[in-house]
Amino acid sequence: MTPKRVALGLLATSLAIPNEHGAQPPRSRTERNHDVSVDVGGLALRRRDEPWRRAVSVVPHWRAATQDGALYVGGAVSGTQNGYESAYGTLGLELTPQSSRAHPWDLAGTATVLSAKATQAIGVATLRGRKHWMTDDEGAWVGVTLGGRTQDQTQFGSIAAEASFWRAVTPATTVMLTASATQAGDFLYYEYADAPGTEFRLPHTARFGELAAAVRHVQPRVELALDGRYRMGPSEVLGGSGAFTGDVAWWVTSRYAVVGLVGRQLADPALGTASTLYASVGLRIAARSLGAKPYTAPPRDPVLSRRPEVLHVRGPAGWTSTSSKREVELVDARDGSFVQLRIGADAKTVEMAGDFSGWQPIALVRLNGAWRLPEALAPGVYRMIMRVDGGEWRPMLGLPRLQDEFGGEVGVVTIPR
Amino acid sequence: MRRMRVAVLLALALGAAQPASSQAVKLDSALAAALAPTLDAARTDGLPDAPLFAKAQEGVLKRAPRERIVGAVAALADRMRAARGELAPNATDHEIIAGAEALAVGVSGQVLRTVRLYRPRGTAAMPLEVIAHLAWRGVRPDQAADAITRAVVGGATAAQLVALDASVRQDVESGVAPPAALATRTRGLTLQLQAPANRSAADAAPQSMSSSPGAGRARPRKP
């Protein structure tokens, strides 16, 4: 059945859509930030009471961000073992203009088109506006999302009101609690069991509420997101009441990550998908090496995208880099005592140069497995670069970077008073 | 002859400036000669030359083309010259260097003049350094300059500016967007500057009034 192919393709690809990633805010209003990646993976899914099915998908992603917002294009091409090839594309725009800084708000819109083999396209559009209240490590927002879907020459609409509270419990961990109420127009979706004639249209107006809790934890190489939610509403329409998702990405190198997803997704009236169990494993390939720019975790939410450095840059201590294929860790830059680095055991020489040395190279001294400057640095802010074993001079990753006058970059390290 | 003498002095200075260096950066004679006019003029104008040496060192270390090094050193000299003019009549070397850093990140000369107006000789460097540091961390230069000049005009002490700089740094490192961090911390400093009497009263409040979680930590006002 053609509609089955459409629906299964939509489901498969929507599950495989990666996080919007690389939204590190630019350093200036004129700077842009581009990120390009592709996920290639396999997916196993079980929709309602159907058997498990397998699919493969290729999910490209492009995103450009400025201080005033972001534009992203995502999509997927997938095929299942049943031969349900489909393509899915989405265009998103987020607006966080300068005028929203004092009294934060944001506006986001998406337009999505699904096309599957020998079917009519399905179009989905959403528009969301939110008002935020934020302090250093916690915040809240309320928002309204309008949705529209066209499918089989029929249009459906939905409206959802949401309220959320989030708090950064540690520099790397954020928790978020959300409550929402949704009303969706005729809830059309398809059953696509193998037996013919099992296509359903449920012309209900779906009204339901949800309570959700999410935890997001990000380390320099590992990103982990857990989400649980409980839905209150007519289960015969919505296909269940409880759901969870787990999402992990492990950056094996600066360009490649293993990504995995597992969970149960509730029926989505806006997308027209039914509840589904799924598990997915894939490879994420970043077009630009993470070493080229400190990687910032994908923003699941504009709130988080405004405070992205919590996700990977934890200050002078605790960062790592794959520079020269060696682990480099700034162990301590406090108390004005010294800058101490931990580098791979096979390093023979480590040198550092910067404002503090008049840009003369200073050889670091190895002591107890770590490398340190021979003399203490006075408290202050310094521009610096380093090299290992006479290699290329480069700023240490994880530190704020500046363009220099010579076409390169320097890192900025602070020795606190 | 004078240029040659400057070039020789430059080469010697660069070669012997840092005894702790693992491998001191050397200038070739052509680069030293190319830099000599700039350094000569800078000395004639009474500008500090150590930053110019350091800039040349940086370029050599990064193997930049000679023309680019000469251009960078000349640009720095121009910025220091401009900073000295804006901080006239009696800027110290430290102030000139800090002013040049501020100009380098995009701050206008008016900001330097404002800081000079409210800071006597020898005390303008700190605010200008803080502006540059904030810009380095991702704050827009105009926002940084606006915040710091307002603080200076409001009578902020050097210690308060240092504390502001440190607070913004900590906020940014813990994940707050730089503009938001500066806005929040500036509000706190402004409150301090505007209501010292209230602050004193708050400091004297009974401990029981601060027993809630997070007590003792300054909480920004809601926007």
Description:
The complex is a heterodimer of chains A (417) and B (223). With 417 residues, chain A is mainly beta. Chain A is built from 4 helices and 23 strands. In chain A, strand 22 and strand 23 (409-415) form a beta hairpin. In chain A, 45% of the residues are buried. The model of chain A is unreliable at 1-32, 190-201, 289-329 and 331-338 (pLDDT under 50). Chain B is built from 11 helices and no strands. Chain B is globular, with a radius of gyration of 22 Å. At the A-B interface, helix 4 and strand 18 of A face helix 3, helix 4, helix 7, helix 9 and helix 10 of B.
Question: Can you summarize this structure?
Answer:
Chain A has 417 residues and is mostly beta strands.
Count of helical segments of chain A? 4
Helix content of chain A: under 10%
Derived structural class of chain B = mainly alpha
Distance between the termini of chain B: 64 Å
Give the tally of β-strands of chain A.
23
Q: Can you count the beta strands of chain B?
A: 0
